Amino acid sequence: MNSNSTKSILLVGVGGQGTILASKVLSEGLMRMGYDVKMSEIHGMSQRGGSVTTHVRYGSKVYSPVISEGEADILVAFEKLEAARWLTYLKDRGVLVVNDYEIYPVPVLLGRAKYPEDLNGMFRRKVKDVKIFDAGKVAQDLGNVKAQNVVLLGALIKAMGLDAINWEEVLAEVVPARFLELNVKALKAGMEL
Questions:
Q1: Virtual CA dihedral for 17, 20, 22, 28, nearest 10 degrees?
Q2: What are the extents of the domains in the chain?
Q3: Which CATH architecture has domain 7-192?
Q4: What is the largest distance, in Å, between two alpha-carbon atoms of the chain?
Q5: Whole-angstrom Cα distance, residue 116 to residue 118?
Q6: How many whole angstroms separate alpha carbon 89 and alpha carbon 14?
Q7: Is 183's pLDDT higher than 60?
Q8: pLDDT band for position 2 (50/70/90)?
Q9: Rounded-to-integer distance, Cα 123 and Cα 46, Å
Q10: Are 57 and 5 in contact (CB under 8 A)?
């Protein structure tokens, strides 16, 4: 990264998926790497399964945490419909990381709307660099589906080339001790995807 460039990462998901925890771990790690980091979290009706977005910007000097449309270097979606909803925020040559996971919003559950078909195909047609995988399955295989947020974080760290620091130490600072072992395994699994 040259001295004046700022990188922008947009993390999007649904309330309860751990989007904010992943963003806090990421921000802490970036600060340890010596970057100026700004983070902004936006909760929709997150307690009721609504959208949660987190903007993380880092560089030598960052003036605002807010990412505008077409500015995200990487978009990490914890759920496929959220990826579709926020896709316009990704740069032309940006990277899209998608959890191959569906959470049906209330209108779909009530039969008033249909969940879009073939979102993965649409992502592949619109984005040159797209990574789609089932982070929930990876986390479930490790013992707890709730660790899918850290699996996605591991994939993000690898995709951005940010694996030069001890992320286990960062996790130890942010994650409760009783979940540390699981989260370390989840981070490593994500980095290997």
A1: -170
A2: 7-192
A3: 3-Layer(aba) Sandwich (3.40)
A4: 51
A5: 7
A6: 17
A7: yes
A8: very low
A9: 25
A10: no
Strand pairing class (90-99; 129-133): parallel
For residue 131, report the phi and psi dihedrals to the nearest 5 degrees.
-125, 115
Sign (positive or negative) of CA dihedral 158, 162, 165, 166: negative
Pairing of strands 51-59, 6-14: antiparallel
Residue in the structure block whose two tokens are 């751990």? 18
Which residue in 178, 175, 179 sits closest to 167, CA to CA? Answer: 175
Look up residue 54 and give its two tokens.
């987190």
Closest C-alpha to 134, from 160, 153, 161, 152? 152
- Sign of the Cα pseudo-torsion (112, 113, 115, 117, in order): positive
| 7 φ/ψ angles, rounded to the nearest 5 degrees | -100, 145
Report the pLDDT averaged over residues 167-174. Answer: 95
Structure-token match 């945490």, residue found: 65
Q: What is the mean pLDDT of the chain?
A: 92
* Whether this model's pTM surpasses 0.90: yes
